[in-house]
Amino acid sequence: MDIHFLSVIPEVFGPYVNASILGRAQAADLARFFAHDLRDWTHDRHRTVDDAPFGGGQGMLMKPEPFFEAVEAIRNSSEVPLTTIFLSPQGAPFTQAKAHELSGKPGLLLVSGRYEGMDERVFSLADEVVSLGDFVLTGGELAAMAVADATVRLIPGVLGNERSALEESFEDGLLECAQYTRPAEFRGMAVPDVLLSGDHGKVDEWRRRNALERTRRFRPDLLEAVSGEVSDRGR
């Protein structure tokens, strides 16, 4: 998979994508990352990407011309078809299901805005607009990295153990169950006996029940999709 980042601060992507899981994906030639500077598609000596909004208002708005030129150039020069995704608070919430969908794409172009936002016309370039949640960041770069991370780790071969991705939070609509490691007791807090029993059937049952309990406690909004199972199992 090829992932292109478009931003006015492209240097922020390198340290992250060269480390950990994304770095491993690059080393295994399972993913390639390209960071592009939006200012490379400006034509004035100040490399201007923003201007005052029509109608007045606070702050500066990102101009449409550099985005159109950049996105068209990156798409045309790409070796694979690119799905263009704009990161914006007005987008659809990014989910694990969307990460799975994107992991099957040959390439992504993740476009980050800054300042007070982007001229509305640039969104006509987007195949999709996604948001990390109902909050505002200084720019879309962190969101773009989050989308890239969540997507790339689902590409077959990136994680050492393919089952690990299937047993994480949100894969079955629930939060992941509680996890423990050595020591079996720490400061008076003991690991549940069932996890030390060696009975895999009972362990699986405990993990499912615990996942339901944790979801009920921390994210009750997720239980709607599995309400039938919750009713069957009870508390």
Describe the structure.
There is one protein chain. The C terminus is likely disordered. This protein has 8 helices and 9 strands. The two termini are about 45 Å apart. About 25% of the residues are buried. It folds into 2 domains: about 150 residues, Alpha/beta knot (3-Layer(aba) Sandwich), CATH 3.40.1280.10; about 70 residues, Trp Operon Repressor, Chain A (Orthogonal Bundle), CATH 1.10.1270. The longest helix is centred in the last third of the chain and has 19 residues. It is α/β, with parallel strands linked by helices. The chain is elongated. About 35% of the residues lie in helices and about 15% in strands. A 5-stranded parallel sheet has the order 2-1-6-5-7, with helices on both faces. Strand 5, helix 4 and strand 6 form a beta-alpha-beta unit. Helix 4 crosses helix 5.
